[in-house]
Amino acid sequence: MPNLEEFRQQTRAWLEESCPASMRNPINSDKDQCWGGRNWVFESDEQRLWLECMAERGWTAPQWPKEYGGGGLSREEAKILKQEMARITARRPLESFGIDMLGPALLKFASEEQKQRYIPEIIRGEIRWCQGYSEPNAGSDLASLQMRAEDKGDHYLVNGSKVWTSYADKSDWIFCLVRTDFDAPKHKGISFLLFDMTSPGVSTNPIKLISGKSPFCETVCENVKVPKENLVGELNKGWDIAKYLLTHEREMIGGFGLSRAGTKTLGQMAVSAIGVADGRLAERGIRTDIADFEIDEMAFALTIERVVDEAKAGQGTGAASSLLKLYGTELNKDRNELLMSIGGSEALAWESEGGETQAQHWLRSKGNSIEGGTSEIQLNIIAKRILGMPG
Amino acid sequence: MALVLNEEQQMLRDSAKSFIQESSPVGALRKLRDSGEEWSPELWSGMAEMGWTGIAIPEDFGGLEFGYVGAGIVLEECGRTLAASPLLSSSFVCASLLEAVGNEAQKESLLAAIAGGETVFTLALCEGDRFDPTRIATTAAADGDTYVLNGSKKHVLDGDLANTFIVVARLTGDADSEDGLGLFLVDRDTEGLSVSTTLNADNRRVGNLDFESVRVAANAVIGKPGANGAALARALDIGAALSAAELLGVAQESFERTLDYLKDRKQFGVPVASFQALQHRAAQLFCELELCKSCVLKALQAIDQDSPDRSTLVSMAKAKVAKTSKLAVNEAVQMHAGIGMTDEFDIGFFMKRSAAACQEYGDYYFHSDRFAELGGY
Ligand SMILES: Cc1cc2nc3c(=O)[nH]c(=O)nc-3n(C[C@H](O)[C@H](O)[C@H](O)COP(=O)(O)OP(=O)(O)OC[C@H]3O[C@@H](n4cnc5c(N)ncnc54)[C@H](O)[C@@H]3O)c2cc1C
């Protein structure tokens, strides 16, 4: 095993030197998170610089193979990188569905040419991807999707609509589930297609959320021509890719359950907002709920650690992604409910100078247990796949 | 440190599992209860032969020096079959105190006897009905180089078996002060000490002790009277973390038995496990138990490594496991329904043991309160 302590020292020194000061500040608004892509306007030179120097080492995707521009790190090294970034409260240099969802699926299912083409630009944050899975009549029952792609010899002709497509209006490309066999059983006629959002016939309409923001869209395809080389994996075998990608999406969303390094704990926030009486938080009911939450949060973080360590030691329990998705998203909702309680009437404010309000965060968090498969669907998966319950 | 069992620890778990399933399955508890007994001396000698009585004791004093992660592995397996023994109070909690503050002579003789299972020690700490390690009114008055104890203790674990009590008594300060406590070795048959026992719902006996001018010789004082706070705190953390480990075994086993039953039991022409209302509750409980496993291992590692946030991690673990175990045994009885309510069926034993183990070394409320306090709120 390479010398991990040495790796830690080098990483620490490099991060100290390379991570710009402003990239160590807490995230306050959407613009603080860099999503990259053709149309991204960097918030600051430092944001650009941080992305560039991390991407150059492949550290936007630390464990991906070096041959495609990834970091080539082992699990142990990636864990150290994460710890060292947390130590200086460094922001993630790139938020990306390409990294969290599409990339792992491409690495497993795509052809060599496709990997060479798409992966390096994901790592460098040059292309922003969105996810075309859900449709108006295919939510939890995703496999019933109806968007069709017809074989026209040298291309597929795509027609239909997707809905709840996060950031479709800001994305450069989409990875999309389409029906390519109209007679086969529903899981067996689905294919996995990639296409450019600027292709003629693609349009997006933003949908406003209860939080007042419009991060997601309706995406309509009318006679969109997609080159045949953009099919990933085999025709009609897209469902396996779709499911594999979902496990990665779930792990990403589950990570919302963790509080960001360097931020105050709920207990500390409550002490400043509510005050102390007899050496304890003055509002005793909230105190108990905060303790419950913080215990679960700590236990959850430890469970993520344990799952990773067990996988490393070859003792994996498997199917952990549903557990992490379920628990992490419910925790994030609890956290936001508590923040609303701690803030009291003050937390209801709807307008603020720059950044999002607590009320907006709170409302947005409700989507966590819906996106990527609802909590009920995760419970179904755990009951059936892990616990072996029938029906 | 990786949050997994290493190879040695996995081997320990396998051997602990097969020993305990063989020599003390749940049926053994039923037999004991039906014949009016609470524990089995044969099981205890078997445990001593396995080295469990010395698992956390340094090799120099006749132990295996396997650490508290090892002790937790053993207790978790005992939790699965509800096997009763004084491992926790004698071999783990009292031994840790003697190791930390005992003098060389005490360590030589007493630790070796504990490691060999030849004698049983227990801690006589609490005086009320809730775990409260500073509410100590029992007094120790110096008289030359001896001490005289007066007061009483309640709910002393393994109070029926212990040959010797480590008594926590107050030298100075008021009843709630953390300082001014001394540790005294008092043999069961010492003049002035009267011991009665109470049988609890889980078929274990706890002791009620009364001290009337009990004289303690100089060589029966452990550590420096008034200055044992850190060692006592650590011993109680060991108790809480290990009781969480045992409770995890109780909860996990009752969950697995319930899951098997749901797959077996048919109503409306199908296994009841096919009903989504039950599937979701089972899946939720599965997740909680997964979190508990992580908490318990982390807390025990924190003790072995002398981590600065040991107490926070221990309170996290005990609070989380106590809450989850309560859910697990309640779901178990509800999902077994009629048969779950019968004495003839074993699942009720899990509910009774869970309730008792939840109280040992601090219940959910004690530990969630301490967790908040340590978190500064
Ligand atoms: C913020 C946000 C972002 C999103 N981003 C994207 C995106 O980028 N790309 C994309 O493709 N999709 C996206 N989605 C869509 C998301 O994946 C779907 O909303 C989700 O899968 C649920 O589908 P649905 O909304 O149609 O609900 P439905 O499936 O209609 O569910 C309604 C209710 O029924 C329950 N239910 C359904 N089936 C079962 C069952 N078998 N057992 C028990 N209960 C059941 C559900 O849990 C839910 O409570 C996003 C959603 C949100 C909220």
Task: Give the structure's gist in a few sentences.
The complex is a heterodimer of chains A (391) and B (377). Chain A has helices spanning 4-18, 45-56, 75-87, 97-109, 112-123, 238-254, 266-274, 284-312, 320-343, 358-365, 375-386, and strands at 129-132, 148-151, 155-166, 173-179, 190-196, 202-207, 216-227, 231-232, 276-277, 280-281.
General description of the model:
The complex is a heterodimer of chains A (391) and B (377). Chain A has 391 residues and is of the alpha+beta class. Chain A has eleven helices and ten strands. Chain A has three domains: 24-127, Butyryl-Coa Dehydrogenase, subunit A, domain 1 (Orthogonal Bundle); 129-232, Beta Barrel (Butyryl-CoA Dehydrogenase, subunit A, domain 2), CATH 2.40.110; 241-386, Butyryl-CoA Dehydrogenase, subunit A, domain 3, CATH 1.20.140.10. The longest helix of chain A has 29 residues, at 284-312. Chain B is of the alpha+beta class. Chain B folds into three domains: 7-120, Orthogonal Bundle (Butyryl-Coa Dehydrogenase, subunit A, domain 1), CATH 1.10.540; 122-222, Beta Barrel (Butyryl-CoA Dehydrogenase, subunit A, domain 2), CATH 2.40.110.10; 229-374, Butyryl-CoA Dehydrogenase, subunit A, domain 3, CATH 1.20.140. Helix content of chain B is 51%, strand content 16%. Chain B has eleven helices and ten strands. Chain B has helices at 7-23, 26-34, 41-50, 67-81, 87-101, 104-115, 229-264, 276-304, 310-336, 347-359, 364-374, and strands at 121-124, 139-143, 146-157, 164-170, 181-187, 193-199, 205-216, 221-222, 266-267, 270-271. At the A-B interface, α7, β10, α8, α9 and α11 of A face α7, β10, α8, α9 and α11 of B. The complex binds flavin-adenine dinucleotide. The site of flavin-adenine dinucleotide has 20 residues of chain A, from β1, β3 and α11.
Descriptive labels:
heterodimer, A: 391 residues, Butyryl-CoA Dehydrogenase, subunit A, domain 2, Butyryl-CoA Dehydrogenase, subunit A, domain 3, four-stranded antiparallel beta sheet, 11 helices, 10 strands, B: 377 residues, alpha+beta, 3 domains, four-stranded mixed beta sheet, binds flavin-adenine dinucleotide
